[in-house]
Amino acid sequence: MSGTTTAGARLRAAGGGTNRWVVLVVLCVSLLLVALDATVLHVAVPAVTEDLRPSSTALLWIVDAYPLVCASLLILFGTLGDRIGRRRVLLGGYALFGVASAVAAMADTPAVLIAARALLGVGGAMIMPATLSILRAVFPDRRERATAIGVWTAVAAIGAATGPVLGGFLVEHYWWGSVFLINIPLMALILPAGRRLLPESRGSGQGPWDVLGALMAAAGVLGAVLGVKRAGAGDELLSPATLGPLLLGAALLVLFVRRQRRRAHPLIDMRLFSRAAFTTSVGCIVLAMLALVGLELIAVQYLQLVLGLSPLETGLRLLPLTFAAMAAGATGSYTLARVGPRRMVGGGFVLTAGSVLLLVLMGQHDRPLLLTVGFVLLGFGLQTTLFAAYESMLSEAPADSAGGAAAIGETSYQLGAGMGIALLGSVMNAAYAPGLARVPGVPAEAAAAASNSLGEAYQVAAGLGGAAGEALHTAARHAFVHGLHVTLAVSAALLLSGAAMALRLPRVMEAPADEPTAATDHAADHADRAAVDRAAPGVPASRGASGAHGPHDRHQPGDGTRVPARRAPAETAGSGRTAH
């Protein structure tokens, strides 16, 4: 009973009780802004190009600075939050995000906009793992946490899918800087709300923080993501600009892992990866994001360049995917409790693969019903997979390592997104280019230029004019649709491999030994109150059981002193393993 009592005190100390759902709202608004900012700029790129006249390299950095910096710093800030306090890091991220948004909106040169986007990436890296690790602390009961993660993942989907719609509306009615200004009033509201409502939580804090290890992880992830993005942009894999960052990033990550294994107090406990459920969940997140981002990129090109939809119309066509993802997140906790992680993740992958194969029926002409059904199944299937994978990964990690585990999950998310663009983009290009090799009346140089992308093919065709231009335009459309079908088939194969990977997950959802169920927490509450009444008659029980001094301190009414709370077994090093 003592371990259960301690768990009940930890729940209240972390902000449990009625206010934990208010905390969830604040965390979700935080995540919404970060996810929104990752995609809102995409439709504003033409307007930015016309106004600031950046070079092709500068334009690439304007788009990529945010995700590159954010991905590289997730482990650094996730583990720092475990040491100095996740709420402190989160509030700092809010402030930096607001300031960087103002700088980006008013940027008058490409260099200023790149710097502002990089600062936004720093702020995003401070916010993203902190939201998930605070959620882990506020909801120690696994079943309640599953509900909270369902809402959290649905909000992430809403932000990513709403970005192009909102960005398209703002660019059409205002100027491109307005896509950043929307962050400022929201941050002005959420910063004081977070300071007032969010509880502070941190890990055990044992030993010094490994600054060198954190920098090695940041540089390693930066190199890996940069190399993957360059490959996805069409650079040769063996070129120095692509292979160099990949090799350097991989070497630094290997050294980081070896360093963490030798340290008595590592940033990330590498023993987490010896747990099949944790490693499998991380792999499933990578595969799911690989499929989602790659398919979304190609779908946007199809909707705009083949069907001729505007950016706003394109965003609206993708809304069914968002609504389906929201439904999957809302029902995820119910589904997970009844079918278990293995069937939920595997079933989500199979459903997504089926929706991808359904979209192979897309052709030269608009088929709204087919697209809507395909996007609904795609959104529901992928969000089901992501929900169950995140929940399993986070539940496998001890509470003390929540920040590090959340950082691993978010880094996997970013790596999967970059790999999706690189891999599926390469498949698309390989299937698209041969269709333009022998177009009657088109010179070889023009055909080679048109083979780079469908947008460039349209420009070349317009320049040629006449019968040759019309023939190139038609051939490019046919080649793109053929490439789309090949890419969808490859994506379906990857998704089915994810379903096979999910067989390593546990069959049923079990609460770890360190986490109270609703019944045990209710019993713990009565035990805490009784203990306080016995220790200090006449003192209100709510005062003694409030846990206001943190998860590892217990206030003893009557003498004004604090003594360390007796730890539950799962609070020891390397604990927190789910019993399967």
Automatic annotation (TrEMBL):
<feature type="transmembrane region" description="Helical">
    <location>
        <begin position="369"/>
        <end position="390"/>
    </location>
</feature>
<keyword id="KW-0813">Transport</keyword>
<protein>
    <submittedName>
        <fullName>Transporter</fullName>
    </submittedName>
</protein>
<feature type="transmembrane region" description="Helical">
    <location>
        <begin position="57"/>
        <end position="77"/>
    </location>
</feature>
<feature type="transmembrane region" description="Helical">
    <location>
        <begin position="147"/>
        <end position="167"/>
    </location>
</feature>
<keyword id="KW-0812">Transmembrane</keyword>
<dbReference type="Pfam" id="PF07690">
    <property type="entry name" value="MFS_1"/>
</dbReference>
<dbReference type="GO" id="GO:0046677">
    <property type="term" value="P:response to antibiotic"/>
</dbReference>
<dbReference type="GO" id="GO:0022857">
    <property type="term" value="F:transmembrane transporter activity"/>
</dbReference>
<dbReference type="InterPro" id="IPR011701">
    <property type="entry name" value="MFS"/>
</dbReference>
<dbReference type="InterPro" id="IPR020846">
    <property type="entry name" value="MFS_dom"/>
</dbReference>
<feature type="transmembrane region" description="Helical">
    <location>
        <begin position="173"/>
        <end position="191"/>
    </location>
</feature>
<feature type="transmembrane region" description="Helical">
    <location>
        <begin position="318"/>
        <end position="337"/>
    </location>
</feature>
<keyword id="KW-1133">Transmembrane helix</keyword>
<keyword id="KW-0472">Membrane</keyword>
<feature type="domain" description="Major facilitator superfamily (MFS) profile">
    <location>
        <begin position="23"/>
        <end position="509"/>
    </location>
</feature>
<feature type="transmembrane region" description="Helical">
    <location>
        <begin position="479"/>
        <end position="503"/>
    </location>
</feature>
<keyword id="KW-1003">Cell membrane</keyword>
<feature type="region of interest" description="Disordered">
    <location>
        <begin position="537"/>
        <end position="580"/>
    </location>
</feature>
<feature type="transmembrane region" description="Helical">
    <location>
        <begin position="277"/>
        <end position="298"/>
    </location>
</feature>
<feature type="transmembrane region" description="Helical">
    <location>
        <begin position="211"/>
        <end position="231"/>
    </location>
</feature>
<feature type="transmembrane region" description="Helical">
    <location>
        <begin position="113"/>
        <end position="135"/>
    </location>
</feature>
<dbReference type="GO" id="GO:0005886">
    <property type="term" value="C:plasma membrane"/>
</dbReference>
<feature type="transmembrane region" description="Helical">
    <location>
        <begin position="89"/>
        <end position="107"/>
    </location>
</feature>
<dbReference type="InterPro" id="IPR036259">
    <property type="entry name" value="MFS_trans_sf"/>
</dbReference>
<feature type="transmembrane region" description="Helical">
    <location>
        <begin position="344"/>
        <end position="363"/>
    </location>
</feature>
<feature type="transmembrane region" description="Helical">
    <location>
        <begin position="237"/>
        <end position="257"/>
    </location>
</feature>
<keyword id="KW-0046">Antibiotic resistance</keyword>
<feature type="transmembrane region" description="Helical">
    <location>
        <begin position="21"/>
        <end position="45"/>
    </location>
</feature>
